[in-house]
Amino acid sequence: MTARSHHVAILGCGVIGLSTGLAILEAQPDGPNRSKTRVTIVAKELPGSATPADQKHSAEYASVWAGGHHVSDAKTERELRHDKVTFDRMSMLAQDKPWRTQKVDSSSAFGEPLLPITKPAASSPASAIQGREPLVWVHQTELFERRDPSQSTRPPYQGVLDWYPDVSSHHFEMAMEAIHKERADNPLSLQFKELPPASLAPRFGWGCTFSTIDINVPVYLDWLLERFLQLGGRVVVSKANSLQHAVRIAASSTGSRAVCRDTSTWTSVPPVDALVVSPGLGARSIVGIEDLAVHPQRGQVVVVNAPWLSVDEGNRWQNLCHELPGVSVVRPQGGREVYVIPRGDGTVVCGGTRIVDEWDPTPRAETTKTILERCLKIMPQLVDPRKRNALIEPRVEDIEVLGVNVGLRPARRGGVRLEKAQKDVDGAKVIFNYGYGGAGYQASWGAALEAKKDKLGIAPTTTATMTTRPDPVTPFALNTPLFNVLAGKRVVLASSSPRRKQILASVGLEPEIVPSTFEEDLPKSEFTGDAVYEYPVQTGSKKALEVYKRLVEENPEDPPDFVISADTVVVKDEVIMEKPADAQDNLRMLADLNGNKCEVVTGVTVIWPVIEAPGFQMRSLCERTVVRFADNPYYLLKAYVDSNEGIDRAGGFAIQGRGSLLVRCIEGDYNNVVGFPLYAFSAFLHDLIENDELDMVQDD
Q1: Alpha-carbon distances of 92 from 97, 117, 410, 491, rounded to whole Å
Q2: pTM tops 0.90, yes or no
Q3: Contact 51, 235 (CB under 8 A)
Q4: Pair 264, 383 in one domain
Q5: Residue 567 is among the residues annotated as catalytic for this protein
Q6: What backbone phi and psi angles, to 5 degrees, belong to 92?
Q7: Phi-psi region for residue 360, left (φ > 0), alpha (ψ -120 to 50) or beta?
Q8: Which end of the chain is more exposed for a tag (fewer CB within 10 A), N or C?
Q9: What is the CATH number of the domain that holds 529?
């Protein structure tokens, strides 16, 4: 007996709706007796390949007008999780390039080539004919304008951007070595880099660089739709006035308005079991939603031709150090005032604007001029190299403009709405998934997978269908029992510290990064005398346990094999030193340490699953390193404080930076002072392995 198919309808064909449809269809079970899920998208507008050439998309169809770069602006843990999941998925897509191999016939359901990415639009410049890939790696620079002095001194990228990798020319040789060892799927990747304050223009307070992915939006959106149809999805081109109307449209045959790959599979359309609502700005007016918190954020961008900013065809798929430059300027109140997004095919998106509650879809000439002036200041490469040199100032007039686009981003006051409705509609449960504003692309896969698993209840069918993750042990690692045990496992580092990740990567261990949400609020007053050394151990243990339990709850079918956490404190005279409150406090701390000593203490905890209750094993270690400061002159202490390097560091100094000028010597592990006791960690785990405590060999 053939199992009944489940039928999910999706209202909206933007990047959120399409990604959700793909997430549902991509891991269907095999066999006639296995329950299948069928998906229908109901939308009034479709991406470019499905739209007649004489029809232009409306400004409300924001997904087709987006600039498209993966640069997180997360304000909550959920937003950050969505961004990270999407980045991981896009990284895999950029690596595997499924658009090159997923062909089922020579034509699409729309009478166009199956992969429109192989055929540039007629209006595309000649330079764009090659390199039309949906996703391209870039080397991103983020510049943050100075805040009001009364605001936080914490770098605005901390916890938001510092998890991105950085595969740059500095690490090119090691990356290429990884390729030569047949590990091109897992090149050496290092964390993002902070830009020294002295290297920034006066208007900027912070800066950082990292590797990320830019999205060639017309190409990527077309591929999402084509892939959705390849997997058996169906699209109905129709405007739904209410949720009930959307359910009825999806449940009908709809004749010529329905598009699918194989019409024979849709001769009998099953009832709709669930409706995912992702209608963009339509959420304001569609009956059954009528969410007036949804509002437009008008964005205007300029698309320019700059073939010298394209990815070289000869090296594109071998060279992992992506030097194609992307850049953004972030305002003190948040939001990117200026951004330059190269698409890899010789076209570049320059932006932009973000005008709240503005509905005007018409491009404005004065805005175009302002955008180009701002972008040219930070990216003079927008002008043909033949028209600029040290004596010739680049001019806006020398930029070749291909088009000016206006999109109305569907934002929502109060944040994203991703939840199950209290009432069903015509027997279909309703999942709201909208309000992403300008973050739709960077959150798309995370939002889609959460809607699929947590709201629709569609979990991975087997372990084989889960997302493949890179091996945490790289070819750079030594052939020792420790790395042999961890190879192929899900190893998680419960920390966002770029220094800890760099230390582990330096010996060939690149764990998955899942920062802990533990508040680190243990009362330090209770840790006095010798007990002060227990503080980082207990804090590290709580971090590890929080991450381990959260990952097990999120996906019991894919629990972590090994979680590592660490907490580091600076201790002087058996008292834990905090981070400086301000520059004056930083100077006081350094004066107290000057000519004296302190201890850097790190507690490391590891957790792995076992059969016996409570289902996991936890072990911890504590490493102490003495740091002796020289008797430094006052001007040196003051100069270091003025550098701001120690303002966000416990004890007020960073030994791996200019703080090393203040230190006469250390007694113990240098890496421990930086943030992770590598030798003690390695020796500790080797002892566990030797004593048969750490055994993660899986049964067949």
Answers
A1: 8, 18, 28, 18
A2: no
A3: no
A4: no
A5: yes
A6: -65, -40
A7: beta
A8: C
A9: 3.90.950.10
